[in-house]
Structures are given as structure tokens and as C-alpha cells.
Design brief:
Elements: E1 9-14, H1 21-32, E2 36-41, H2 50-54, H3 64-68, E3 71-74, H4 77-86, E4 95-97, H5 101-104, H6 111-122, E5 129-134, H7 148-166, E6 172-177
Parallel strand pairs: 1-2, 2-3, 3-4, 5-6
Length: 188
């Protein structure tokens, strides 16, 4: 890549443990000669990423991180707050909320059509309450209970059982989607 010319801007993403962003954050300017380094944070996940863990190698009390990273792009104010909590001395004016292509590309005008088609496919009538539980990989979050996903699912399941007892005339369906990287999916 460098044979074709210098790197003007290096763009990394905050992802999972051992993600590729550490290469961008810690070496783009020094090794690649990048003039600017930006990080895209696609969600609210910096605590479990290699970005979050590798911050231990940077002095948070100096401007070293500000020199390494010229700016962040994130989804919303919640994501910005996560960055600010992780990097309290980082200049907030260099954290840009841009929205998320994932949510911005939802076809909200087709929501009713998709809801109807999905319920038909699953054999769920319109009067049934459907709760979707999206599984996670508990180990991705530094300092978190390694069984937080399992425990959260169990509490969700228990709460829905209580709701079913209180409202026996109401049908409730719990849908579970395991995370693709979950080494120990919950057996429901």
C-alpha cells in the first residue's frame, strides 16, 4: 500500500477483542505516515474491544491519545458518552455523532408488511406478544460477569413467565437469536 503513496487518513473501527483497530490506533501515523487517524465506533461496545483494553498502554492523563486519534465517528449521544467515559480527557468536539447505516437503512415504511410476513412464517397471530432476545458474547466486556448474557436471558425468561401467569389470557412468544460468535449458546 505504501508503495503507491503515503496514507492521508487511516480509518479504524472499534470491534471485538483482538480487533484490527489497534493497528490503526497505535501505528498508523508512525508506520504508515498517516496524517490523520479516525475511529468509527459502530455501537456502544468500546469496553470490550481491544481498543478499550489497549488504552492501558496509553497515558490517559496526557494528550497521547489525542495525538494518536484525530477524531471519532459514532452512532449517537449514548455512544459519545461511552467514548467520553472511556477517555474522559479526550476533546468532546472531536467526537462526531453521525448516525448508523444499519438503523438508517431500515425500511420503516415496510415495517407492517415485514411484521405480517414474519408472524405468518413463524405461525404467530397478531394478538401474541413477541419478545426478541438478541444474544451476546459475555466475554467481550472487560470487567463484566462472564455469564451476563446467560443471566440476562434467564431473567428475561422469568419475567415473561411471570407476565404469562398474571395475564393467562395473553400469549407470549420469546424468540432467541444467539450471537454468531457465542461459543456457548443458551439452550432455551
Amino acid at each position: 500500500i505504501l508503495d503507491e503513496g503515503p496514507v492521508d487518513i487511516a480509518l479504524g473501527t472499534v470491534s471485538v477483542i483482538n480487533g484490527p483497530e489497534s493497528l490503526i490506533v497505535y501505528t498508523a501515523k508512525r508506520l504508515f505516515g498517516a496524517k490523520k487517524v479516525f475511529i468509527v465506533m459502530e455501537g456502544w461496545n468500546s469496553l470490550g474491544s481491544s481498543f478499550g483494553e489497549n488504552l492501558l498502554h496509553l497515558d490517559r492523563e496526557t494528550d497521547e491519545i489525542s495525538l494518536a486519534i484525530d477524531g471519532f465517528f459514532c452512532n449517537d449521544d449514548i455512544a459519545k458518552a461511552v467514548i467520553r467515559r472511556t477517555l474522559p480527557s479526550y476533546p468532546p468536539e472531536r467526537i462526531f455523532t453521525t448516525g448508523t447505516p444499519t438503523l438508517d437503512s431500515l425500511e420503516n415504511d415496510k415495517a407492517d408488511e415485514y411484521r405480517k410476513t414474519t408472524r405468518e412464517k413463524l405461525g404467530v397471530d397478531d394478538d401474541t406478544l413477541v419478545v426478541l432476545y438478541l444474544g451476546d458474547v459475555s466475554g467481550d466486556y472487560h470487567g463484566c460477569d462472564l455469564e451476563i448474557n446467560k443471566k440476562t436471558f434467564e431473567r428475561t425468561y422469568e419475567a415473561l413467565n411471570k407476565a404469562a401467569e398474571i395475564h393467562p389470557d395473553r400469549h407470549i412468544v420469546l424468540l432467541y437469536r444467539q450471537h454468531p460468535r457465542d461459543p456457548e449458546p443458551i439452550s432455551a
